[in-house]
Write a structure and sequence with these properties.
Distance between the termini: 51 Å
Strand order of the largest sheet: 3-2-1-4-5-6
Order of helices and strands: HEHEHEEHEHEEEHEHEHEHHEHH
Shape: globular
Radius of gyration: 20 Å
Structural class: alpha/beta
Number of helices: 12
Strand content: 15-25%
Number of strands: 12
Helix content: 25-40%
């Protein structure tokens, strides 16, 4: 069953949110949502954890199915062996989508991790359930204050949206852009991308009227031809910055153990970005500079540009 775009929209723009499996003393995921504009719930079975959750003024339930009303987004932070039970309850509940922080799946190359990931893929595919991740930080929405980190801003406006296969780089690009005076509309940390992949998120954002530009950190693609075609269409509508991780041989090996992405030739990536009209960057510093440049400078009116330098060496470098 194909992923329902309406359900994906619910998950990325939730009015009701449930966190499953958060633990104290910090209760990271529930604390991150302290400014959330909608209804927030907890699901926790451990009797030792429930008092701390209720002290935060958050209603706790023993099952997703016990929560009254509809749930747009479930943040799943349980051990990997528990994830199929959470997904089964989410499917029965009819939630909009799931953001899965849990890791330890196919990226580990362990038989149990691979088997669990295959089971999740089958369950979500059969039910048409949007699943962000697993092995990811999930969803940030500036307007609704859905957050995966304490330093993320909450408010109106939005200059750019971010897609990142790495949670750390997703946070880094978002915080870096904020530090440069850029309002990040939304960030989606996509991890292993076992149901939705980079092309699905790019397609969503290129059609999102509240996203004027897009920045991406990618380590590989699930479907190279589809990504090429989607990226080419996206750049016709708005600027797209792409930072490709794992450029060296050693980096490509690290990519495979990080998100399970397949390594591919950097020359192919460079050619693809040039052909599609994307803006290629090679580091987080370049990504943040490119984001700031897009947002803080006027849009060019033509294709011609003149550069003036004081010395010959500067002219050569230019």
């Amino acid at each position: 069953m194909p992923i329902n775009q309406e359900r994906l929209h619910r998950a990325l723009n939730p009015r009701t949110l449930a966190v499953v499996g958060d633990k104290g003393p910090q209760y990271q995921w529930l604390t991150n949502q302290k400014d959330f504009t909608g209804e927030l719930y907890s699901v926790q079975l451990d009797e030792n954890e429930i008092p701390g959750i209720e002290e935060k003024g958050i209603a706790n339930y023993k099952s997703l199915k016990d929560i009254p009303g509809d749930i747009d987004l479930v943040i799943c932070a349980v051990p990997r062996q528990v994830t199929p039970y959470v997904v089964a309850d989410a499917i029965e509940k009819g939630v909009g989508g799931i953001s899965m922080f849990t890791s330890g799946f196919a990226e580990t190359k362990e038989p149990q991790g691979i088997e669990l990931q295959e089971k999740l893929v089958q369950m979500c595919t059969d039910a048409g359930m949007p699943l962000v991740g697993p092995n990811c930080m999930g969803v940030y929405n500036r307007h609704l204050a859905v957050k995966f980190g304490g330093g993320l801003e909450h408010g109106d406006g939005g200059d750019i949206s971010v897609i990142s296969q790495s949670g750390t780089h997703g946070i880094g690009m978002t915080n870096g852009a904020q530090g440069a005076g850029v309002k990040v509309r939304r960030t989606i940390s996509i991890g292993n991308s076992i149901i939705l992949n980079e092309s699905d998120y790019l397609e969503y954002l290129m059609n999102d009227p509240e996203t004027p530009a897009i920045a991406m950190y990618l380590e590989g693609t699930k479907d190279g031809r589809r990504f090429f075609n989607t990226l080419r269409e996206a750049t016709k509508k708005k600027p797209v910055i792409v930072w490709k991780g794992g450029r060296s041989t050693a980096g490509a090996r690290a990519v495979n153990s990080h998100t399970g992405s397949l390594a591919s030739s950097q020359a192919i990536w460079d050619a693809m970005l040039k052909q599609t009209g994307a803006i290629a960057v090679a580091s987080i510093e370049e990504a943040v500079d490119a984001i700031a440049g897009l947002v803080h400078t006027k849009q060019p009116t033509g294709r011609n540009i003149a550069l003036i330098a004081m010395t010959g060496g500067q002219s050569v470098a230019i």
